[in-house]
Amino acid sequence: MRILLGLTYYRPHVSGLTIYVERLARALVMRGHTVTVLTSQYDRGLPRREKLHGVRVVRVPVAARVSKGVLMPTIGQVASKLVAAHDALSLHLPQLDASGIALRGRLLRKPTVLTYHSDLTLPASPLSGVVNRVVDASNHVAARLCDVLCAYTEDFARHSRLLSAYLSKVRYILPPVEMPMVEPAAAAAWAARHGLDSGTPVIGVAGRLAADKGIEFLLEAMPAVLAVHPRLKVIHAGPVEDVIGEERYRQRLAPILQRFADCYTFLGTLEPDKMAHFFSNCDVHVLPSINSTETFGLVQIEAALCGTPTVASALPGVRVPTQMTGMGLTVPPRNADALAAGMLKVLANPEQFQRPRDPIATQFSPQVTAERYENLFEELKAW
Questions:
Q1: pLDDT tens digits for 90-129?
Q2: How many other CB atoms sit within 10 Å of the CB of residue 293?
Q3: Choices 3.90.360.10, 3.10.150.10, 3.40.50.2000, 3.30.499.10: CATH for 184-363
Q4: Which CATH number fits domain 2-176+365-381: 3.40.50.2000, 3.40.30.10, 3.40.309.10, 3.40.50.720?
Q5: Which of 33, 36, 47, 282 is buried most deeply by CB count within 10 Å?
Q6: Residue 197 host element (H or E)
Q7: What residue spans define the domains of the chain?
Q8: What is each CA distance from 312 to 62, 69, 175, 212, 361, in whole angstroms?
């Protein structure tokens, strides 16, 4: 089957959505399908055409940018050719152009599946409000035109401002998550290189330095945790500089982060094998997200596969991974006291939050996710 995947940002951009689509695309290729990704050339240094891990990537030039959004005047022309040349469409929202691509799928009778990853919430500004309304309107058009909508969990779908209006069309597919095994000696060597002493409690943060991640609440919770664990270290893996649309947030946090410079370390973006070393050296992973741009948190499963429990915000969808795995707990969002209490509980009772790895790895295998999409496309072709 020839499958076209559409999304705004693809690799080398780092986000949960791009990682999801990359894993899905590679798994579909491994299952014998021809896969093309239609995305933006958000960085002019990126090639317009390339092949990554067997996946053909087509990038459309960006004429202008509005916060995290991009305007691509030629995407309609490119999409028309690609939709006609493929057997099935998998669109990943939020994406302003999804409605136009879904329309082409409807007109050409191509099975079209729309996966809704999160609501779009831009940094507050007069223009952002307009953009949010435009994107929401486009999303509703795409939802009506597609054959099926996909969500990770029913918990998120029932609370989503988009999916809740189309529940009869929603299917649930767990996200693809993979994490290599780490030898203890390799994990210890990684810890030594990063100055992590044996016996020092380590809190891990995995994600972009972005306003929706709620890092300020982790910083507010730090004094209470340091009072119990004065040698505590925080290691943060993910992009910090040049995060699209987040410069103002980074500047706002800079003086607060400076106060914790002795115990808070940014590691930058890590490759998957290094992320396994990262999680393996954390005693607890923290996901203090604050809104519906976070709808599951793939990093919670990645951490669990490395034996590390998570303390996460009890947001719709985000509260599901710890319920499924038993590896961690959730606390009210935007509540530094509750976050501190959650971290202290996990640090004090680590054995309470340990579970076998294999059942988790099987449930979230990219091959399982790809098979479910494959079966869905075959079902839609038979309609």
A1: 999 988 899 999 999 999 999 999 999 987 766 566 666 6
A2: 22
A3: 3.40.50.2000
A4: 3.40.50.2000
A5: 282
A6: none
A7: 2-176+365-381, 184-363
A8: 35, 27, 18, 13, 20
